[in-house]
Amino acid sequence: MKFYMMHLMPYADLDLDYDQKHNSAWVTLPNSYYDPKKGAKLYNRYLDELEYADQLGFDGICVNEHHQNAYGLMPQPGVMAGALARRTKKVKIAILGRALPLLNNPVTVAEEFAMVDNITEGRFIAGFVRGIGAEYHAWSSNPADSHDRFHEAHDLILRAWTETGPFAFEGKHYQFEYVNLWPRPYQSPRPPIWIPSQGSSETIEWASHPDRRYTYLQTFTPVAMLAKYMQMYKAMAAGHGYEATEDQLGWSVPLYVAETDEIARREAQPHIENFLNKFLRMPKEMLLPPGYLSLNSMLGVMKAKSSIGTKQTIDDVMAKGMFICGSPETVRQKLEQYQSEIGFGHLLTLLQFGTLPAELTRKNMEIYANEVMPYLRDKTANAIPAAAE
Fold it and tell me: Which pairs count as long-range contacts for 176-181, CB under 8 Å and 24+ apart, including other chains?
């Protein structure tokens, strides 16, 4: 199993009483709540934390894209990846990912990702997403066009990376007389591609197709639903005549580890509950706008994300396996159990969440890296088949 530190870079200095006047930390929360001086310090603190993950021996570090919210301050994740590219030495850097349907020019992402891939000399992982429903409100983009725009942008980016230019591209949404990428990617024929998702069956089917075999990442989901979606990927792969490997499956989950179960719960509780009830707060119609998903996928995602928008406690999410918290022994046992039962090869831990302060984030990272990762790495060292890509 490979270990990654995922960072959302939230606005941790958020006035938590905002919800007395506003119903969401997304899109409609006035940006008067953002103090640039505090935000500047947070950005540099968060970059320091991701750089520290390199020193602690993580396999990779991950950033992502969200717009107009306090939950994640990375509307342009390539800025963060570029900053990290020169300051890290060993870890892979993953952008998970760019929201392709929102783009007017997908070639800019092909260029941006190729630049990071060159600067890191191949330590880059490309992530493509459709973007959650809130992004379509932020960009005034039609969610009903999401699938078509995603697939067309993806095809254009892959051709830009792998075909000798200049060539013309004529699609429904994007038209170019000249596609001629400078620079070309460092990795040949292209960087590995990962697909994070909330659990859309169409996305799982598309990612698992033998033409792609992309690594599929399930984000912030109860373990029961995680197992369902991982099995769906394996079943679809089998239907195409091949066996999916653990390298094609990943899980993103917030985690906190401390000296004992009691200390871990006490230290994490206010911060994970702020994450759940303040930073994730949004109405369902913002999360899942009409036309964004098929009916079948909508029903599944609504079940997996049913808790968003409702008041949750640390005990609620721990019971569902949506938050891993405890002593090193407890955390090791839970992760080993879930990995053994479900069979994912990439574990993306959110070691800073909500209002978790710098000193507790560093403590969390150190105990996890020193007392959890080595154990699980040894346990799974011979279990991961060769990468699919």
Answer: 176/107, 179/107, 181/107, 181/110, 181/111, 181/114
